[in-house]
Every structure is written in structure tokens, then in C-alpha cells.
Amino acid sequence: MLTRRRLLGAALATGGTALTGAALSPLLTTPAAAAAPVLTPFQTAMPVPPTLLPASTANGTDTYEMYVGRANTQIIPGVDTEVITFNGAFPGPTIRARRGRPVVIRQKNRLDMPVSIHLHGGHVTPENDGDPMATIAPGTARLYRYGNDQAHAPLWFHDHAHHMESEHVYRGLSAFYLLSDDEERALPLPSGQYDVPIALRDVRFDDAGQLLYVMDDFQNRNTILANGKPWPYFQVAARKYRFRILNSTNIRFFTLRLSDGGEIIQIGSDGGLLETPYRTGTLSLSPGERVDVVIDFSRYPVGTQLVLENTEGPGPVEQVGKVLRFDVTRTAADTSSVPDRLRTLPPLPPATVHREITLRMDEDGRANPGAYMNDLVYDPARIDQSITWGSTEIWTVGNVNRFVPHNFHMHLVQFRVLERNGGPVGPAEAGLKDTVRVMPGETVKVQATFDSYRGKYLYHCHLFDHAAMGMMAQMEIS
Q1: How many secondary structure helices (H) and strands (E) does the chain include?
Q2: Does residue 63 contact residue 54 with C-beta atoms inside 8 Å?
Q3: Which DSSP symbol is given to 102?
């Protein structure tokens, strides 16, 4: 159920009250309410994002040509909506990379504003990390080099240009980057057409069917998209499927379940496979988080229609309470399986440094509220944490707000979540992570080892609107 507590708390997180609609956060003037087109769920098929092929595979490197630009797409059937995309695709095309095989992407900026492309979850050098200030000027291009020297993981990439990332990502500038390795490919998991990436997000339309962007406009972004389509259906065979699910929203949290309460097998999270499968009925995803799951449709007869529901607010349950529908339309052979053991993670080394990080956003109704990391607003000229290369550290991240939810994302490293509110974490968070939710009043303890690259990297709240307001900081590894 969309509880009143969740509804009110999430709305206050973004500067409004979902129960009254009263604005608390006038960063931008909210336009007069527009009569958005009325959409009927489950009328459109969910597409699978296209896989981008490299322009060159010479010298053991896959080289891709990409551009950032405006395009028109039909989110609403029969209506052209302007979006900002990679290569004109909404969502962007998927890159499928392999460990040990470098990727080079030539990103051309066809917009009239700068961009900076960040490979979320990637182990990359500072100059290739998509720093908010290392932007690509309009009409120019930049090479990003990714060594792919890390284990398999469902990564993604998006804009990170400071103060602009929120609107750019909202308008479509994100895409999957699925990194595999021999360990993952050796497993008998569903593959090929039965391995499907799904990017979830929410939008708000004006009366002309265009995306309406207002900072912190969480309570009105109530149209849920899966792979760019509103409440689509997806035809499946009565067999096992693997779904890589990404929460690519700016500020919405999802709690997902099947409408019949059926089992979902979680096999992975941000940093790749879990050690053992987790059989569950719900999946929780804050912005930027990914979850890797298997759903076995062989337990349903052909003709079954099964809705993937969302129980997280705010918003009208008839809109935000459903995500997509699986239609079981045929039978198919299935030789895939989910092993009892998926991988073995290395033991945690002893930590030598402990740090305290606080997340806070003004929530008292003031004009122009601030968003802070350790009570400071992001300053690219300031180093907030100095880290010794090779060290292992424990960071205790606390959300000191009463109502505002946050999450925490660290660039460069995949970390382990040790504790939540002083207690052990559940199986869903037992693997490698790069983004973790931190609800009001919560503390989360994470451990990371900084033994890959030296240089300056970000850590921040991955609610894009909060980051754009300044809830970011900078660490230097040396």
C-alpha cells in the first residue's frame, strides 16, 4: 500500500506535500497545472534498448561513436515528444563490454549546453570519470577510455555536468553499460533474448505531450516508464528470464513486486552477482541502484497477465502503483538454471580509517533550500576527504533529515554494506554496491578499498535534484 507516512515523507523530500500539492521548494516557479494526456496502461509494447555495435574492434579495443543530442520519440502513442538522448535512442543504446577488453567512446556534443558523461559504477581514471566540471563544450567531442579491469557488473552512464545533470537525465540522457566476464558467462543463467535490461523512470507531461521539468517536482511525475514507454506490456514465454532493472529516475524510490505475490530470484545488485541467490517477493531500488533478477514464468499457463507493481509513493496508486505487465504468450524450451552458488567475494580486509558522513537538506519550507554533504555545498576547488591509496576504510553515512530520503553513491569503487542502523543488512544488500539508500534518520556503514586509481573523485547523493543543489563532495586518493 502507498502509506500516508511514505507519501508524506517522500513528498517533503522533494519540496512538496503529496497530500495537498502545496509547494515548499521554490527553486523554480512551478508552472500552472497542465492537463496532461490521459494514458491507458498496457497499450504499448515494451521495447528492449538497442545494443550499440562498435565502429572498430582493432587492436583489442572496442571503439564506439556516440553523440548527445535532441530527438523526438513517441512516449505517448501518436505524439512526438522532444528528448535528449545518446544517438537518438530513448533510453540510450546499450553497450555490452567484456572484462579485460578496453572500450573507447567518442562522445560528440550536439547540444547548445555542456555535458559530462559518467560511467556509473565504473573503475576508471579521473580524466575519464565524467567530473562535473570536465565538460564537453557544445559542438565539440571527447574520448572516454574505459579499461574494464573490474568484475562483471550492470553499469550505466549518464550526464554529470553540475547544475545541468538533473534536467539532462530527466529528459533522457542515460543508457546501460553491461560489463561481463568469464565467471558470469560460465553460469547457466538465462541469456540472449531472455536477458532483458529494463530502465525505470517517471515523467510529467504538459498538455502538448512534452516533458515538463521542474526541480523537485516529485509529486507530479506520476507517469511510470519502462524502457521509455508508459506502463507497457512485455510478452514472455513460459520459461525463465533474466531482468537487469535500473532505477534511472531523478528522485523516485521503487518497491517492486509481482501482482500475484510470486517469487522473484535476486541474483545480483550494483556490483554484479550476489554470492547466493535471494528468493524474495519484493525489490527496493533508490535512484541509481540496479538489481539483477530471474523470474520463472513456467509456473504460469499461457494467457496469464502478470503486473509488476510498485508499492512506494508518493502519487496516485492508480498511476504509480503499476510499472509494466508481463503477458505469457507461448511456451519455449529452457535449459537455463540459477545455481545455488553464483560467485565468491573476497574476504573483507581490516579497515584502518573510519569516517563520518552526514546528508542533509533544508526541510523547513524556506525559499531556496540547500542540500549539504557534511553541512557543506559542493565546491570543485575543495578536497573534502584525503585518502591513502591502497587503504581500506569504513564510512558511516547518516541521513539527519526527519522527512527527506537520500541515498549515497561513491565514484570509482564498489563497496560492501556492513550495517544498517547498527544491525546486519539483508541479503539484497549483501553483494557489491556503489549506491545505497539512506532513509530519514538512518545510518548505513560501508567499507571500501581504494587500490585502483589515484586522483580526485566524487561522492554524493544520487537523487539528481539533490546533487544539482549541491549535495556532493570530493575525495582525493594519493
Answers
A1: 5, 32
A2: yes
A3: -
Cell triple for 125:
581514471
Alpha carbons 227 and 205: distance in angstroms, whole number: 17
Residue 59: all three cell numbers together: 587492436
Q: pLDDT digit string (tens) for 429-473?
A: 999 999 999 999 999 999 999 999 999 999 999 999 999 999 999
Q: Does position 12 have pLDDT exceeding 90, yes or no?
A: no
- pLDDT more than 70, % of the chain: 92
DSSP letter at 31? P
Q: What is the pLDDT of residues 265-303, one digit of tens each?
A: 999 999 999 999 999 999 999 999 999 999 999 999 999
Closest CA to 168 of 224, 229, 117, 223: 117
Name residue, grid cell 513528498.
Answer: 11
What gap in Å lies between CA 354 and CA 256, rounded to an integer? Answer: 34
Give the model's pLDDT for residue 37. 67
Residue 322 bridge partners (DSSP):
309
Among 392, 465, 233, smallest CA distance to 327 is for 233
CB 102 within 8 A of CB 96: no
Residues 200-212 as b/e (b if ≥16 CB within 10 A, e otherwise) read bbbbbbeeebbbb
Distance CA 175, CA 197 (A): 10
Q: How many C-beta atoms lie closer than 10 Å to residue 78's C-beta? A: 7
Let me know the angle formed at the C-alpha of 113 by 146 and 410, rounded to the nearest 5 degrees: 40
Q: What are φ and ψ of residue 193, in 5° steps?
A: -70, -10
Q: Determine the pLDDT at residue 10.
A: 38
